[in-house]
Amino acid sequence: MTYNILCIGEPLAEISRRASDLAVAFGGDTLNTAIYCARSVQNRDIAVHYVTAIGEDTLSDAVLELMTREGIQTDHVSRDPNRQIGIYAIQNDENGERSFHYWRDASAARAMFATDTSPHLAAIEMADLVYLSGITLAILTPNARDRLWNALAAHRASGLKVAFDSNYRPKLWDATTTARREITRFWEITDIALPSYEDEADLFGDKTTSGIVNRIVATGAQSGALKCGDAGPLLIPLSDDIENFAKADRVVDTTGAGDSFNGAYLAAIAADKTQAEAAVEAHALAARVVTHQGAILPRVAASKANRMGSVIRLRPEHLDEYKRLHADVWPGVLSRLKASHFTNYSIYLKKPEFLMFGYFEYTGSDFEADNAAIAADPITQEWWAVCGPMQDPFETRADGEWWAEMEEVFHLA
Ligand SMILES: Nc1ncnc2c1ncn2[C@@H]1O[C@H](COP(=O)(O)OP(=O)(O)OP(=O)(O)O)[C@@H](O)[C@H]1O
Ligand SMILES: O=C(O)C(=O)C[C@H](O)[C@H](O)CO
């Protein structure tokens, strides 16, 4: 029998700075968790569903395609012709810590659970595990929150497990007291608690990690993990059955780290792993997510990254300048590529289509981290600022790509 994990919440379009440009991708805490959970699930008998409402606009189409590409079941994603998905912009400080600006007041997801007969409520019936967050609660009306609470409480009585992350975002609540009351109420019906230290300390004023864990256990949840940033997680209830956690060697952007942690944690628990095993797998993933800009890590797996082909178009008017620059690429750009284990790198041009084909070999062991080091390098960013406007990327490229990655269909070694 399939084990059904249902993530409930709001997908968002994500805007972030990339060199002198803006990049658009997707995020939204529960969508991030659903994606990382679907990526972490290795057992075909575990299905990850996303429960939300989106619009009929271009961004909504694209986020639906993303869910499908990521292997998420979208049978509980409804479409509202009168609303769109929300948007958020990430602002990072020099330590990779971020703050958000939102355009989400009238998003489609806010109208989920608007009536007692909402199909989104009925979806809960088929779930073995439901995951939701404080952000899910913050976007709902008080009545909608009550409906959701009642449905979860009723199904828990027949075996449903509820996983919850308080993910406190003060800007989304009308008052701290409302957030405290609502989040406490949902802790009461939680089985797997996945809070982070900062959110709980901000909201409830706890001074210690043990204070948070003990309060949550006393409220209800008897398992889960407390995320404590680079110090790694603590198990809920507190236990020594856990190792030391390695810190990432570089932090670019912490957005989505906690969400990725939750996704990998839940996938491990659904596969019957222990809490300690789940926390180790979850930390390993989250420690990679912090080295990357944006909530969702590109899908490029190190195993398929040995030989890479990709395409982009050149804007014809920049032909001479582009060739001149590439006849004498800045030394800092070349040394960064070499340090990131890129080798045998060529770019070919086909006129009159002005198609450029890039080929390189990757000889390192962590493609995502090496790629992130390139993206974080100031000289490379300057180089991209010069070369980027001369290029014309394919609209069909994957999220997070500029050059569109190609599939290898033949190779003679
Ligand atoms: N510098 C780091 N090195 C290694 N791992 C890290 C680092 N920072 C965060 N992590 C991992 O990411 C997890 C989540 O981080 P954090 O405690 O900041 O969560 P959060 O604030 O809930 O994140 P989110 O922004 O997704 O809500 C941590 O439990 C840890 O496993
Ligand atoms: O703040 C939100 O609503 C988001 O969901 C945006 C980010 O993806 C999220 O906060 C990361 O946890």
UniProtKB/TrEMBL annotation:
GO terms for molecular function: 2-dehydro-3-deoxygluconokinase activity; racemase and epimerase activity, acting on carbohydrates and derivatives. InterPro entries: Carboh/pur_kinase_PfkB_CS, Dimeric_a/b-barrel, PfkB_dom, Rham/fucose_mutarotase, Ribokinase-like. Residues 14-298 form the Carbohydrate kinase PfkB domain. Its EC number is 2.7.1.45. Pfam families: PfkB, rhaM. Keywords: Kinase, Transferase. SUPFAM superfamilies: Dimeric alpha+beta barrel, Ribokinase-like. This is 2-dehydro-3-deoxygluconokinase. The gene is kdgK_1.
